[in-house]
Design goal:
With about 220 residues, the chain is mainly beta. About 10% of the residues lie in helices and about 30% in strands.
Length: about 220
């Protein structure tokens, strides 16, 4: 009943229609996917998403959070390193830290399930990176981010928003940034840091216009 009510609000012209649609998707059971056909047939391409959700990412982590981890420029963000280096190796101790491409089919409305890709997650930081692009006629977008833990958002390598509050869940969007677009693809980056306490381990990014209407987005984990 709640999901149906949110869906109805999502079809209206309300200022919270986009938020209602996102909540309705989270509360509704995800559709069954295709049967597992093996790694050889697995696709890392997400295709155009009409609902504005980013489903293709490269994840790099975990990095030890020994203090100030959210602001620290490390791994692919460190001096002399590159977000696009798919062969980079930032391993430490017994933990292998290399860029890993996310499987888009496993990214649901609740976001990217970090536990599938990152261990250990408590008291650690990770980067989620994506190359995003929009229709040539799109001049301005609003990027909306939901994340557990602490979060810092980057656009083309520059920090545009951050929150040091530690959130155990990622249901509602916690950050929104309006961006005036230049032509061509752009690099989206999200750095998340977890506390000693467990959380749901989710990150979600979606794009709307300034009125909250969904925008079609193309995203690739091939940086």
């Amino acid at each position: 009943e709640v999901a149906r009510s949110l869906t109805a609000i999502g079809k209206s012209s309300s200022a919270v229609a986009g938020d209602a649609r996102a909540l309705a998707q989270i509360l509704s059971p995800p559709p069954f996917g295709r049967s597992w056909e093996g790694w050889a047939k697995l696709s890392f391409d997400a295709g155009t998403q009409a609902n504005g959700e980013v489903k293709a990412y490269t994840i790099v982590g975990p990095f030890q959070d020994v203090g100030g981890g959210l602001a620290r420029q490390e791994g692919p963000e460190a001096e002399g390193e590159s977000f696009a280096d798919e062969n980079a190796d930032y391993s430490w101790g017994d933990f292998e830290v290399r860029p890993r491409r996310v499987v888009p089919a496993w990214v649901q409305a609740s976001g990217v399930p970090l536990d599938l890709y990152v261990h250990p997650r408590t008291e650690s930081c990770s980067y989620l990176l994506s190359k995003v692009s929009f229709k040539d006629s799109t001049k301005s977008v609003v990027m909306r981010v939901a994340a557990t833990g602490m979060v810092r958002v980057m656009w083309d390598g520059e920090t545009v928003a951050y929150s040091e509050d530690v959130n155990p869940r990622a249901v509602l969007d916690r950050l929104a940034v309006q961006i005036e677009l230049d032509p061509g693809p752009h690099l989206l980056g999200v750095k998340v840091c977890s506390s000693p306490l467990p959380d749901d381990g989710r990150v979600r990014v979606r794009f709307t216009d300034e009125n909250g209407a969904d925008l079609s987005v193309d995203a690739s984990s091939d940086l």
